[in-house]
Amino acid sequence: MEKFEKLSGIAAPLPLINIDTDMIIPKQFLKTIKRSGLGVNLFDEMRYDDDGREIPDFVLNKPQYRDAQILVAGDNFGCGSSREHAPWAIKDFGIRCIIAPSFADIFYNNCFKNGILPIALPQEQVDVLMKEAEKGANARIEVDLEAQTVSTSEGEVFRFEVDAFKKHCLLEGLDDIGLTLEKAAAIDAFEAQLAQARPWV
Amino acid sequence: MSPKTLYDKIWDAHLAHEAEDGTCLLYIDRHLVHEVTSPQAFEGLRMAGRTVRAPDKTIAVPDHNVPTTPDRVKGIENEESRIQVEALDRNARDFGIHYYPVNDIRQGIVHIVGPEQGWTLPGMTVVCGDSHTATHGAFGALAHGIGTSEVEHVLATQTLIQRKGKNMKVEITGKLRPGVTAKDITLSVIGETGTAGGTGYVIEYCGEAIRDLSMEGRMTVCNMAIEGGARAGLIAPDEKTFEYVKGRPHAPKGAQWEAALAWWKTLYSDDDAHWDKVVTLRGEDIAPVVTWGTSPEDVLPITASVPDPSDFKGGKVDAVRRALDYMGLKPGQKLSEVEIDTVFIGSCTNGRIEDLRAAAAILKGKRIKEGLRAMVVPGSGLVRAQAEEEGLADIFIEAGFEWRLAGCSMCLAMNPDQLSPGERCAATSNRNFEGRQGRGGRTHLMSPAMAAAAAVTGRLTDVREMM
Ligand code: SF4
């Protein structure tokens, strides 16, 4: 997995609540058997019209946000399905960090597995960052995972919380499965006990 | 011993490892797999030279992509869908996991097949690369959706890296009124708590109205726990649960049945267990409901009118404005006057036999409104066969419904069953998101009986007028 340490980039404002996974990547793109190549279809139905032409008003179609690496959004981001195609599409587009007041559970987890950092901050702070994002290429937001901070171009600094284990994995780019397999003995022992206690499982 | 909730008990019984920082490895008893969220996980295993740790606990079935028209026995026409289903065929074979191929009579929506075949049992941990895995919580199993990376993790290690969630109790007291169903309960709860109200929690549903539900109804309730933001929904197992499970192909038998039963009977929340959040609804207060917007929390009794954006606060004002625009509705418009084009009865929320019975009871001897498109997609081949045996299929066909083969179908419209832009659908599924049932399609969620009533009148309809 790609490491995430520091990021300084343009943030795209998407001030909607309940942005669901069907909006992030509609189902017609879930037929792939690969993880890559989904970026062009990120937010497909908001981004393109019925004839597949770009809708100029949509934030990621605006020239100043085409290279956005951060997304600032409303409450309950990523609700809906468990499709990991959502973070795959986000990552493939080039976005590495999402800032919102809250995230849906499964989506939040999925981000960490793909080198994306989701940051939950209080609404007032997201409001400040949303304003900042509206400045387009005139403002870069800085994210420092080690220090757990987000800073605006004006020098305002917000601290965020992140689970220590998730932080560690993201900083080091660690593969979860490899880490868990180091605990194979514990799993073996559990299975042996399970076979005794609940043999029907 | 300190008192525990049902969730605490299941959690404790599956804790394989706990690190100092509180990160846990939860052992997984059943891993359900479907074609859309698994190809990349199997690919990952192959690339790393890993195997499936517990193939005996891993069950796969194609459902999301499969066509539901009778000609599917001849093969899947859409190339991408076919490739995905073929990939599942191959992965199931290569890794030696249990498999129900597309033309097996036991094939169906993964969350219907699991319980039907007795894979889902009380007290288990169940995961699937699908958010509606919460359905299995109806058996008192800790069941939740996971992403593809986690699918790969479970395949390789039979565990999941987890932190414990918080406990939330949703109590539905008293009795339901006539015409009110499990779907109305679960939608009303989301209307009350919002789609993020359960985030970080595992919900246990309890109370007289829940106890009174059949297993099918309980599955409908738990199915939509995720729509309320919760990782999982649970209902403590009781005699109804044991009765449902008994004799199923993969349920324990003989002495093992007795041993299992003895343990299952300990699976309930202790009286003085601690709850981080409690929500109580009176069964008598729940009405037949429909959704009017593009989030499952946008729910109102069928007797109500479309709300005004100014009735809301914060970010919801804009969201409602956008939703009404998308849905083509005006504030103040009576919900019962909203005309529909399509009716979809099916999905893992409401594609079980009891759902088909409830819809057929309304449709018996009636015809659907002229010009309407209506389809029933049974949740599994076995549900379909049973409905045919009970004469329900004939009722649907005579009423003008299409009688389909099993699959997810128009719940998410990955197969050819889709809405066209602006088309309005009365649906028994679980999500009314923008574009969910087809680009520009408009979805109103409701119970099977309500969907059947809407099919007859051609508009959103109070089922109580037809009872
Ligand atoms: S029926 Fe719908 S919600 Fe259920 S598993 Fe299929 S697509 Fe998902």
Automatic annotation (TrEMBL), chain A:
<dbReference type="InterPro" id="IPR015928">
    <property type="entry name" value="Aconitase/3IPM_dehydase_swvl"/>
</dbReference>
<protein>
    <recommendedName>
        <fullName>3-isopropylmalate dehydratase small subunit</fullName>
        <ecNumber>4.2.1.33</ecNumber>
    </recommendedName>
</protein>
<comment type="pathway">
    <text>Amino-acid biosynthesis; L-leucine biosynthesis; L-leucine from 3-methyl-2-oxobutanoate: step 2/4.</text>
</comment>
<keyword id="KW-0028">Amino-acid biosynthesis</keyword>
<comment type="similarity">
    <text>Belongs to the LeuD family. LeuD type 1 subfamily.</text>
</comment>
<dbReference type="Pfam" id="PF00694">
    <property type="entry name" value="Aconitase_C"/>
</dbReference>
<dbReference type="InterPro" id="IPR000573">
    <property type="entry name" value="AconitaseA/IPMdHydase_ssu_swvl"/>
</dbReference>
<comment type="subunit">
    <text>Heterodimer of LeuC and LeuD.</text>
</comment>
<dbReference type="GO" id="GO:0003861">
    <property type="term" value="F:3-isopropylmalate dehydratase activity"/>
</dbReference>
<dbReference type="InterPro" id="IPR033940">
    <property type="entry name" value="IPMI_Swivel"/>
</dbReference>
<keyword id="KW-0432">Leucine biosynthesis</keyword>
<dbReference type="InterPro" id="IPR050075">
    <property type="entry name" value="LeuD"/>
</dbReference>
<keyword id="KW-0100">Branched-chain amino acid biosynthesis</keyword>
<keyword id="KW-0456">Lyase</keyword>
<feature type="domain" description="Aconitase A/isopropylmalate dehydratase small subunit swivel">
    <location>
        <begin position="1"/>
        <end position="124"/>
    </location>
</feature>
<comment type="function">
    <text>Catalyzes the isomerization between 2-isopropylmalate and 3-isopropylmalate, via the formation of 2-isopropylmaleate.</text>
</comment>
<dbReference type="GO" id="GO:0009098">
    <property type="term" value="P:L-leucine biosynthetic process"/>
</dbReference>
<dbReference type="GO" id="GO:0009316">
    <property type="term" value="C:3-isopropylmalate dehydratase complex"/>
</dbReference>
<dbReference type="InterPro" id="IPR004431">
    <property type="entry name" value="3-IsopropMal_deHydase_ssu"/>
</dbReference>
TrEMBL record, chain B:
<feature type="binding site">
    <location>
        <position position="408"/>
    </location>
    <ligand>
        <name>[4Fe-4S] cluster</name>
    </ligand>
</feature>
<keyword id="KW-0028">Amino-acid biosynthesis</keyword>
<feature type="domain" description="Aconitase/3-isopropylmalate dehydratase large subunit alpha/beta/alpha">
    <location>
        <begin position="8"/>
        <end position="458"/>
    </location>
</feature>
<dbReference type="InterPro" id="IPR033941">
    <property type="entry name" value="IPMI_cat"/>
</dbReference>
<dbReference type="InterPro" id="IPR015931">
    <property type="entry name" value="Acnase/IPM_dHydase_lsu_aba_1/3"/>
</dbReference>
<dbReference type="Pfam" id="PF00330">
    <property type="entry name" value="Aconitase"/>
</dbReference>
<keyword id="KW-0456">Lyase</keyword>
<keyword id="KW-0408">Iron</keyword>
<dbReference type="InterPro" id="IPR018136">
    <property type="entry name" value="Aconitase_4Fe-4S_BS"/>
</dbReference>
<dbReference type="InterPro" id="IPR004430">
    <property type="entry name" value="3-IsopropMal_deHydase_lsu"/>
</dbReference>
<dbReference type="InterPro" id="IPR036008">
    <property type="entry name" value="Aconitase_4Fe-4S_dom"/>
</dbReference>
<comment type="pathway">
    <text>Amino-acid biosynthesis; L-leucine biosynthesis; L-leucine from 3-methyl-2-oxobutanoate: step 2/4.</text>
</comment>
<dbReference type="GO" id="GO:0046872">
    <property type="term" value="F:metal ion binding"/>
</dbReference>
<keyword id="KW-0004">4Fe-4S</keyword>
<keyword id="KW-0411">Iron-sulfur</keyword>
<protein>
    <recommendedName>
        <fullName>3-isopropylmalate dehydratase large subunit</fullName>
        <ecNumber>4.2.1.33</ecNumber>
    </recommendedName>
</protein>
<keyword id="KW-0479">Metal-binding</keyword>
<feature type="binding site">
    <location>
        <position position="411"/>
    </location>
    <ligand>
        <name>[4Fe-4S] cluster</name>
    </ligand>
</feature>
<comment type="subunit">
    <text>Heterodimer of LeuC and LeuD.</text>
</comment>
<dbReference type="InterPro" id="IPR001030">
    <property type="entry name" value="Acoase/IPM_deHydtase_lsu_aba"/>
</dbReference>
<comment type="similarity">
    <text>Belongs to the aconitase/IPM isomerase family. LeuC type 1 subfamily.</text>
</comment>
<feature type="binding site">
    <location>
        <position position="348"/>
    </location>
    <ligand>
        <name>[4Fe-4S] cluster</name>
    </ligand>
</feature>
